[in-house]
């Protein structure tokens, strides 16, 4: 099974980002995804895109974004999306 790459945009110390990460870990089988955490404070471009929206979960394979707040049902639908 091919693992889906997920990128979680956030910042250090963001409690909502920690909640989003915990939901991904609890809501998806570990063999279904690879989670990359990206700190938006390290890039002016990412700050301009995501500063008011974090946490944001991104699927590079489909160029899809899932903005917080999301729950397990939305996360499952996000993962089930196809090209």
Report on this model:
With 83 residues, the chain is an alpha+beta fold. The protein is built from three helices and four strands; from the N terminus they run E-H-E-H-E-E-H. The chain has helices spanning 15-27, 44-50, 72-80, and strands at residues 4-10, 33-39, 56-59, 64-67. A four-stranded mixed β-sheet has the order 2-1-3-4, with helices on one face. It is globular. 18% of the residues are buried. The mean pLDDT is 96.
H/I helix tally: 3
Percentage beta strand: 25-35%
Evaluate the radius of gyration: 12 Å
Find the structural class using helix and strand composition. Answer: alpha+beta
What is the secondary structure topology, with strand pairs?
Elements: E1 4-10, H1 15-27, E2 33-39, H2 44-50, E3 56-59, E4 64-67, H3 72-80
Parallel strand pairs: 1-2
Antiparallel strand pairs: 1-3, 3-4
Quick overview of this protein structure:
By secondary structure, this protein is an alpha+beta fold. It has helices at residues 15-27, 44-50, 72-80; strands spanning 4-10, 33-39, 56-59, 64-67. A hairpin with a 4-residue loop joins strand 3 and strand 4 (64-67).
Can you tag this structure with a few keywords?
83 residues; four-stranded mixed sheet; 3 helices; 35% helix
């Amino acid at each position: 099974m091919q693992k889906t790459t997920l990128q979680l945009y956030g910042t250090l110390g963001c409690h909502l980002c920690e909640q989003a990460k915990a939901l991904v870990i609890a809501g998806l089988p570990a063999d279904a995804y690879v989670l990359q955490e990206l700190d938006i404070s390290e890039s002016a471009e990412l700050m301009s895109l995501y500063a008011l929206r974090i946490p944001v979960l991104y699927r590079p394979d489909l160029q899809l974004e899932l903005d917080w707040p999301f729950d397990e049902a939305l996360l499952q639908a996000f993962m089930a999306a196809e090209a």
